[in-house]
Amino acid sequence: MKSLFIKSMTYSLFLLLFVSCKKDETKIVAGNGTAPVLTATQSTLVLDSANAKKTAVVFNWTASSFNYNAGISYAIQLDVAGNNFSGPKEVALNTALTKTFTVEEINSLINQLGLTPGTPGKIEVRAKASIGDAFSPAYSNVMALTVTPYQIIIDYPSLYVPGSYQGWDFKTAAKISSVNDNKVYEGYINFPDASTDFKFTSQANWNGINYGTSSPGTLNAGGGDNLHTDGAGYYLVKADTKALTYSLTKTVWAVIGTATGSTAAETPMTYDVASKVWTVTKSLAAGSFKFRANGTDAINFGDSKPASGKPVYGGADIPVAAAGNYKIILNLGTPGNYTYSVIKQ
């Protein structure tokens, strides 16, 4: 009888322990995260390099929940309006529920998105909440911002190009630059007159080396005759001060590709003298395109991968994620700092 009692108690204890262990193994499975609610202190930003360290905008958002006792990480995503966040710039913020952007910080991101400096453009912003790669993130409401960025200019070694096209005034003289600092310079200059004389100079005055010519296509480091071109137009200007050569190529720009509707027929762009950019507004399909000059691929711009808004000679086709009406802008006005933008209208 005693033995039976002991066996019964042993079994009961075993059963109790088994049930307790089963309870301990109960796991909480993460569910879909609740969407954060995003707010911003500004909806229109006009950025100025003089205020680089000042606050531009503050974003705040509510906490998300995944029904799971784990740390939630947040990020802010920015993309060009109409891109549906197909290639956003993302700023990771760990567990923070707020982000203050200085003028310098957000201007850098806007430049990377390819908006045209000095021109109002539209971006979209959202907050992202996540608990790891195994679970889908939760996204906030999308906020629309209108932003006018300034260009981040890299000051490459340059030659000045004073000439008759601007009254031989060094204050307004165009420049051509050597991005690789190898004595090979290039830039794009609009010559509005039927006949233009000019020179290359190493300084913004006549006190340095002044390059003229003694024969077409060659440079004379001692001065020589003025360089000259006939025919108004937008010229690709190149100079090699080591080989003492130069070239002038008149260019007219267009876009072409699957996004423009044809890989055989290009769509012309128009040069805006005031803003010094090439533009076209056109209905685009989802696809890609390139910029090219003079109806051939001899001079063409694509981009790097992923697209950065900075033209690359012979680069990859520029993607267009969604069909729509777009304004395309090509800015070759600052040597070594070329940009383009594709803005949904």
Automatic annotation (TrEMBL):
- An MF annotation (GO) of this entry: starch binding
Q: Which InterPro entries does the annotation name?
A: SusE
Q: Which Pfam families match?
A: SusE (PF14292)
The record's annotation in PROSITE patterns points to: PROKAR_LIPOPROTEIN
SusE outer membrane protein domain location is 23-127
Q: Which domain of life is it from?
A: Bacteria
> What Gene Ontology cellular component terms go with this record?
outer membrane
- The protein here is known as SusE-like outer membrane protein
The organism is Pedobacter cryoconitis
